[in-house]
Design brief:
It is built from nine helices and nine strands. The chain has about 280 residues and is an alpha/beta fold. A hairpin with a 5-residue loop joins β8 and β9 (about 225-230). It has helices at about 50-60, 100-105, 110, 115-130, 145-160, 175-195, 205-210, 235-250, 255-265, and strands at about 5-15, 25-35, 40-45, 65-70, 85-90, 165-170, 195-200, 215, 225-230. The chain folds into two domains: about 35-60 and about 75-85 and about 160-255, Rossmann fold (3-Layer(aba) Sandwich); about 95-160, no CATH class. The longest helix has 18 residues, at about 175-195. The two termini are about 40 Å apart. The strands form two sheets. It has a six-stranded mixed beta sheet, sandwiched between helices. It has a three-stranded antiparallel beta sheet with strand order 2-1-4. α4 (about 115-130) packs across α5 (about 145-160) and α5 packs parallel to α6 (about 175-195).
Length: about 280
C-alpha cells in the first residue's frame, strides 16, 4: 500500500424520494468535509442525521444527488470497481456467513477480489492470529462469542490491507469491557497499517477517546462542528462532552466549540523570551 489518498467532500447532497408518498427526504444537505490521509475521525450525531447514508456514499453504494465525494481524484460510486479492496467496513452486526469457518469468513473479501487461495489463507490467518483467534480458525460463527465474532469481522476488514477503514457503530452492541478492548485493538492496528479510519458512534466517550477529530453532524448531515481533540486537554474533556451534547440537542454549534476552533486558527503568540530561541544547540 502506497498510502491512503485524501478524502474530499464538497457540496454533498443526498435526497431520497419516498415510494409511498412521493415526498423528497433530504438525508445530507450541502456537506463540506476534508479528511487527510491516516487521520482517525469520529462522526457523532443523533439518529436520522445522515451518518449511515454518508457511509453508503463513501463505499459507493449510493450516488450523490448533488456535489461530490472524491477519494484521491476518483468517485467511489462512478469508479466503484477501482475501490475493490481499498475500502473496508466493520458494521454493528458482524455479518459473518454461518456456513463458513472463521478462517473462511476472514478470507472472503480476498476471494472476491481474486487473490490466489494460498495468499487468501495466509493473510486471513495472520489477522486472525493478531486478533487473538489463532485457536479458533476452524470454528463456525455459532461457536464463537459476540466479541470473538466481531474480531473475525475486524480481521476480515484488515485482511484486504485497505486504504480506508469505516466502522459503523462497530462496538456499541458489546459489553463495555469487550467494546473498549476491541476499540483499542482496532485503532492500534489502523495506525500500524497507516489506514485512514472513520468511525460512526453515538457514544461521546468513544468519540473523544478514539478520534484525532470529532465531526458533529446535525439533521440532514449538516456539519455543526469539526473538533481537533488535541486542542482539548484531558482536564477539559468534561467541558468538551457538554459542548458536543449541547450542539446535538440544539442542532447548532455550541459557542464553546466555536471559540476553540477560532483559537486554533489564530496565530499563536510567542511568549516572552521565545523570539529567536536557540535552545537545544
Amino acid at each position: 500500500m502506497t498510502g491512503p489518498p485524501p478524502i474530499e467532500v464538497r457540496g454533498l447532497r443526498k435526497v431520497f424520494r419516498q415510494t409511498t408518498t412521493g415526498q423528497s427526504v433530504v438525508a445530507i444537505d450541502r456537506l463540506d468535509l476534508a479528511i487527510a490521509p491516516r487521520e482517525v475521525v469520529a462522526i457523532v450525531g443523533q439518529t436520522g442525521c445522515g451518518k449511515s447514508t454518508f457511509f453508503d456514499l463513501m463505499i459507493g453504494l449510493e450516488a450523490p444527488s448533488e456535489g461530490l465525494i472524491h477519494i484521491g481524484d476518483k468517485s467511489p460510486h462512478a469508479d466503484f470497481d477501482l475501490f475493490r479492496g481499498r475500502i473496508a467496513t466493520v458494521f454493528q452486526q458482524d455479518r459473518l456467513l454461518p456456513w463458513r469457518s472463521a478462517l473462511d469468513n476472514a478470507r472472503l473479501p480476498l476471494e472476491l477480489i481474486g487473490l490466489p487461495e494460498k495468499e487468501q489463507r495466509e493473510r486471513a490467518l495472520t489477522w486472525l492470529n493478531r486478533l487473538g483467534l489463532g485457536q479458533f480458525t476452524n470454528a463456525y460463527p455459532h461457536e464463537l462469542s459476540g466479541g470473538m465474532r466481531q474480531r473475525v469481522a475486524i480481521a476480515r476488514a484488515f485482511a484486504v490491507e485497505p486504504d480506508i477503514l469505516l466502522a459503523d457503530e462497530a462496538f456499541g452492541h458489546l459489553d463495555e469491557v469487550t467494546a473498549a478492548e476491541l476499540r483499542d485493538t482496532f485503532l492500534k492496528l489502523a495506525r500500524e497499517c497507516g489506514s485512514t479510519a472513520i468511525l460512526i458512534t453515538h457514544q461521546l466517550e468513544e468519540a473523544i477517546g478514539v478520534g484525532d477529530r470529532i465531526v458533529v453532524f446535525g439533521k440532514s448531515a449538516k456539519l455543526l462542528a469539526d473538533i481537533h481533540v488535541a486542542d482539548w486537554p484531558k482536564s477539559k474533556y468534561r467541558l468538551l462532552r457538554e459542548a458536543i451534547q449541547s450542539t446535538l440537542q440544539s442542532n447548532r454549534p455550541d459557542p464553546r466549540l466555536t471559540q476553540a476552533a477560532n483559537a486554533r486558527s489564530s496565530p499563536r503568540k510567542r511568549g516572552p523570551g521565545k523570539k529567536g530561541s536557540t535552545s537545544g544547540r
